[in-house]
Write a structure and sequence with these properties.
alpha/beta; Rossmann fold; 6-stranded parallel β-sheet; 10 helices; 12 strands; disordered C terminus
Length: 297
Amino acid sequence: MKILLLGKNGQIGFELQRTLAPLGEVISFDQDRASFLDIVALRQTVKGCSPNVIVNAAAYTAVDKAETDEAVCHAVNAVAPAVLAEEARRLNALLIHYSSDYVFNGKKSDPYLEDDEAFPLSVYARSKVEGDRLVAQSGADFLIIRTGWVYGARGANFLRTILRLAKERSELGIVNDQIGAPTWSRMIAEGTAHAIARAAVNPAEYSGVYHLTAAGRTTWFGFTEAIFDIFNLQPRPKLVPITMDQYPTPAKRPAYSVLSTDKFARAFGLRLPDWRRQLEMVAGEVMSDQISLATSR
């Protein structure tokens, strides 16, 4: 199997380089080598590789910046995925494309299903909805994998921000009325590789939209408390629960974005661990790396 991975330096893309390797030859590019703003070059990249599977881990993820950068956000999150889907159809290749829990408006109180109506609240969310639509209507075989609240031991994400702020401030106000499922980027990558291994045998049978997040749910405040506990941060800043209204942002976000992963489990026989267990695994890895670094010095 020949796999083309785009967005290799992103949170999920970085992990995919390892998890996809056992499946075959992985050809990976970052945004510098395969710009999503140059459609002609993007097509040439795909044609030059002639892959069996295209994994699109590249995306415009600056949710607030997108409010004033709509054209670029739309080009990266909607136009480019549509081009990849066209090329996948031409090559008879399977396309893996990542989407977001932010496609929903957060009005539900039970986990969102794949066929629930999308109701985007922001420029970013609208671009993801459009990308999903164009991929689904392309005629290509595809897996659209919706996830959310992604974090990891590297890159810009909530976990790393909290670990930094905990050293700089004595008090942190954290939103406590936005609910989701924090999900480790490595778990998403491992789930993706597992799905590809099964779907590549008969792509048409599995083609569709799937949700893939950690089990369970929490708030940003609850996630922060868990980070403090599991990483045993000392000294520990005072945590103050606040509302979304008290922390206004340029882009609106859904108050509830928990996703049901039952469809993914039925199709691929896999569920991701609970969000807290995933955080424990990340903490173990980070602490192990810190010990190794200190020992090497």
